[in-house]
Design a protein that fits this description.
The chain is built from seven helices and 18 strands. The chain is of the alpha+beta class and 303 residues long.
Length: 303
């Protein structure tokens, strides 16, 4: 949980003094300190009576970030679930900072050309340098940077393949939503790959292959929920955290059942670069426990 500190009369004149009073000095270097909505990294930042300082909870640094392959100045990077693509309010622990450490470069020269929610695993593209970042933006605008995901939905979708095109807006309290004020066009292609067994009191979960054409926040998750098939573990959008198998055993889904399996750069209709992140063990175990054929996600993510 975050810690909220209100500066009392005569207590301190800067952020460093307040943090020292509460034994939270290390939070400054970790990027977890905010005055208002602004991240603060200088202990000398002035504060006065009544100012609120927020110290966000430290995010556990997840191991497993690795560079899968390189193309020109792009890097395909595997991001494990539980780690943000870029720094968020929990600090600087992120896939981007991990890649900077692996490459021996400052994080400022890297740009996340594709992003995954913290609870989603898979391959992201990191561009090195301003020129590579611009090139990546051009590729996305032309539809030449393509992404494919595997998702475990809570039930089958109808029709079995097609497109979802509901606009996506900023929502409330920082959680994106379908429609609403400020909603922007969003397009997702999907196909049904396989079905598991029906659950004790609900329909059979379904493995989907999904390709977002646009890149709105939570796009796949929202579109699946809008189709009546929220993803397992996606509690923010109506997905179940707990499922009961036909034999009565209960399974807890620890995270959003979504994995970015592949990215491609396509030039003149021909893939010039393909990078694949195999279906992770936790989702493979979940799919098998649900009675799904383990060969299907393995085949889809074999590259």
């Amino acid at each position: 949980m975050s810690m909220r500190l209100v500066v009392r009369p005569g207590e301190a004149t800067n952020v460093g003094e307040v943090l020292a009073l509460h034994g939270a000095e290390s939070a400054l270097a970790e990027g977890r300190v905010f005055v208002g909505a602004k991240r603060v990294d200088d202990a000398r930042h002035p504060v006065g009576e009544g100012d609120e300082i927020v110290v966000e909870e430290r995010r556990e640094v997840r191991r497993g970030v690795r560079v899968i392959s390189e193309y020109q100045s792009f890097y395909a990077v595997f991001k494990p679930h539980g780690l943000p693509t870029e720094p968020d309010r929990s600090g600087t622990a992120s896939a981007l900072h991990s890649v900077a450490e692996l490459l021996g470069v400052p994080p400022s020269v890297l740009h996340a050309a594709t992003r995954l929610d913290a609870q989603v695993s898979g391959v992201v593209v990191v561009a090195r340098g301003a020129e590579a970042s611009r090139h990546c933006t051009e590729l996305k605008a032309k539809g030449a940077l393509r992404r494919r995901y595997l998702a475990v939905a809570s039930r089958a979708v109808e029709p079995a393949a097609g497109t979802w095109n509901a606009p996506i807006g900023p929502g409330r309290h920082g959680v994106p939503s379908l429609g609403g004020r400020g909603a922007r066009d969003a397009l997702t292609r999907y196909e049904t790959l396989a079905s598991a067994r029906p659950l004790a009191s609900s329909a059979a979960p379904t493995l989907l292959g999904v390709e977002p054409v646009t890149g709105r926040p939570h796009q796949i998750r929202l579109h699946a929920a809008g189709a009546g098939a929220p993803l397992l573990g996606d509690v923010k959008h109506g997905g179940p955290r707990r499922v009961v198998l036909p034999d009565g055993r209960a399974l807890t889904v620890e995270r959003v059942a979504l994995h970015a399996v592949q990215v491609q750069v396509v030039v003149e209709g021909v893939p010039a670069w393909t990078a694949t992140a195999p279906f992770p063990d936790d989702l493979a175990t979940l799919w098998a426990a649900l009675g799904g054929d383990p060969a299907v996600p393995a085949r889809e993510s074999s590259g």
